[in-house]
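pasting for the record
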Amino acid sequence: MNPKLRLVAVSAFALLISIPAFAQTPEASILPVNEPLDVGGTILQPGTYVIKVLRSQTDRNKVQITSEKGDKIFATVLTVPHTLEPGEEIPNTTFVFYPAGEGSPRALRTWFAPDPEASGGGHDIVYDESRARQLARIANATVTAYPSTAASADLETRELRVITPEPVVVRTPVVTTPVVETPAPMISSEPVPVQTADTTPMEMPQTASNLPLIALLGLASLGAAVTIHVARR
């Protein structure tokens, strides 16, 4: 074979092999929304969207929500692989949702891409910690979360945590008021002496003299003498 033809054939074969790699379409699904839906903190209004895997340079996956034509991006959210447990089967539906709570819309929990084997079984949507605690209580399930204070640019490097539905118990110290006990009066077993009334007659103080009595007797004697004298006349 002519060396030039051989070079052209090799180049054409290499180009043919590389075409699928460039033309490869990421995993994607049509996401119909009939009511407001929370996807990683972004509320999608009713409409038709496309959800697809956005490959990143880290081990974590990002999922992107776009319009049907792909000309508008509504959200880019963080996910973690939903590894199928032994005996777990892929559900018939492509999407699994958290139920709506009081004052909050329902949220997307897991997306099973068309090729779940390639995606490790599915994609669990990651929420910020405050929203994850609410979803964990509503669904009675664990939710993967990132700190609420994390910036969107730091999501790929921030540590993730698993939120459980059990409420956090805050132990508050109990303050007790000290009770002051008043000691009971001591009771003596010895007999108490009984005080009796003093029956001795009380002597009155001698405050008067005999002078008035003597004067009265003298006056009586004088009266008697005058009476006798008058009778003799």
